[in-house]
Write a structure and sequence with these properties.
The chain is built from one helix and eleven strands. By secondary structure, the chain is an alpha+beta fold. Among the domains are: about 70 residues, OB fold (Dihydrolipoamide Acetyltransferase, E2P), CATH 2.40.50; about 80 residues, OB fold (Dihydrolipoamide Acetyltransferase, E2P) (Beta Barrel), CATH 2.40.50. Strand 10 and strand 11 form a beta hairpin.
Length: about 220
């Protein structure tokens, strides 16, 4: 009887030991699975691209800022303009200034530029034109043929019989001969062009169109 009891106890111990062994092995396998999963997650994070630090905006886009002049450098190399409570200093070297009044404090202006202005930082902005302030100024485009051109102006016919005149300045494209050569007494060349421009309306009601870019149209 005692011998039978001893054998039974030995069998039970063997079964318990085997079960514990399996549990330990399963735990190790589970831990290994978690570890492998953790490695995969880490790998995915490492291949995620970092946020771009490149300045936003496109330098090919013309933009407009309207504000009040608060200061002008003695040599006209720069001016300070207040817009929305922020004072911004704009360099004026090689910039066309076409205003009715001299640049001085309290004069309102519209500034056409390319790039980005961040707060008071104009590092990433290129100033193109300084004009009389306009509340509703917008950048527009017109495609047509060159109907007439003179020393300081040129005219575009949009094909419907409507002619629009522009003031020649140092805008993009004019120095490439895009307006073509005169073919008749009116100095029209018939060259098909696209003009990107802004319009200034003066106190007396007259208007002037200032081209920002002139390019050949297809």
């Amino acid at each position: 009887m005692k011998k039978t009891l001893i054998i039974a106890l030995a069998v039970c111990a063997a079964v318990v030991f085997t079960a514990c062994g399996k549990s330990s092995e399963q735990a190790q396998n589970a831990a290994g699975t978690v570890a492998e999963t953790g490695k995969e997650t880490s790998s995915v994070k490492e291949t995620t691209p970092e946020a771009s630090t490149e300045a936003p905006g496109s330098t090919a886009e013309f933009k407009i800022l309207t504000g009040k002049v608060t200061a002008v450098a003695d040599n006209m190399e720069s001016m300070t303009v207040e817009n929305g409570g922020t004072k911004v200093i704009f360099p004026l070297n090689n910039v066309m200034v076409e205003t009715s009044y001299s640049l001085e404090p309290d004069v309102d202006v519209s500034i056409i530029y390319k790039g980005e202005i961040s707060g008071s930082d104009t590092t990433n902005a290129k100033i193109v034109l300084v004009l009389d302030a306009q509340d509703q100024m917008e950048v527009k485009e017109l495609t047509g043929s060159v109907k007439d051109q003179a020393m300081s102006t040129f005219t575009i016919d949009d094909g419907s019989g409507k002619e629009t005149g522009f003031i020649k300045d140092n805008c993009e494209g004019l120095d490439t001969g895009v307006l073509g050569n005169a073919t008749d007494d009116s100095n029209g060349s018939g060259a098909l062009v696209k003009v990107t421009y802004v319009t200034v309306t003066y106190d007396a009601g007259s208007e002037s169109n200032f081209p920002l870019k002139v390019e050949a149209a297809k």
